[in-house]
Amino acid sequence: MDLKHIPKLKHTDSSNFFLLAGPCAIEGEEMALKIAERIVKITDKLEIPFVFKGSFKKANRSRIDSFTGIGDEKALNILKKVSDTFDVPTVTDIHQESDAALAAAYVDVLQIPAFLVRQTDLLVAAAETGKVVNLKKGQFMSPESMQHAAQKIKDSGNDKVMITDRGTMFGYQDLIVDFRGIPTMRRYASTVLDVTHSLQQPNQSSGVTGGRPEMIETIARAGIVNHVDGLFIETHFNPREAKSDAANMLDLDLLEGLLTRLVNIRKTINQF
């Protein structure tokens, strides 16, 4: 996929990886704008193409009392305000067919959650909006099987598709990243590595997902070395108090240092 299909995306000629980053969920306008402003400054400085990420609702929760959102249109309007304020594209998850047209009126990229990536009607609905579609690889799926998910988007008349690896289930409570899958999936579409979700430790006995954020840089470096087209990183200025995925988000204060080192690695890799 040509990155120029994503509206407002800057620095597309920098030879850098692109970045999908932001909080797991939109918790309010102030927090979204605060996080977006910081990431925009960092990515402009480093010339990284940046898409702001925030879920307008969270449908795949472990418990019925888990945070799911602040209201669909309220959260989508905040995503639009981020885009208008900072002149950046935005991406959000959709969970059912009716979400596709709703979210497409506010954001530039529609993301299909990993658990739902085999749902044909959902993929077709996303494709038919004409927006860029980001397919999260199911934790239960092989890299090779993602060619069929990508083909569903293309067969629906939309070539603007990318694939995001977010780890593969390893037992009941852990995930691994199989880096052999990156060149495989890049044959089908531009490929992103979801660094933070790959470090989740799901389905803990408490019903709250755990994580290993201390491994974020290790996974991200390996992705860059293995030629991923983009990185996906959830970040928050106070991860411990985040209402969703608190255990595996990157502290926003650590983002600039991490991205600076990754850009330097990409510059080295580009020489080969």
Automatic annotation (TrEMBL):
It catalyses: D-arabinose 5-phosphate + phosphoenolpyruvate + H2O = 3-deoxy-alpha-D-manno-2-octulosonate-8-phosphate + phosphate. It is found in: Cytoplasm. GO terms for biological process: lipopolysaccharide biosynthetic process. One of its GO terms (molecular function) is 3-deoxy-8-phosphooctulonate synthase activity. GO terms for cellular component: cytoplasm. Keywords: Cytoplasm, Transferase. It is an enzyme of class 2 (transferase). Pathway: Bacterial outer membrane biogenesis; lipopolysaccharide biosynthesis; Carbohydrate biosynthesis; 3-deoxy-D-manno-octulosonate biosynthesis; 3-deoxy-D-manno-octulosonate from D-ribulose 5-phosphate: step 2/3. Its EC number is 2.5.1.55. InterPro entries: Aldolase_TIM (IPR013785), DAHP1/KDSA (IPR006218), KDO8P_synthase (IPR006269). Gene3D superfamilies: Aldolase class I. Residues 14-267 form the DAHP synthetase I/KDSA domain. Pfam families: DAHP_synth_1 (PF00793). Its main location: cytoplasm. It comes from the Bacteria. Belongs to the KdsA family. This is 3-deoxy-8-phosphooctulonate synthase.
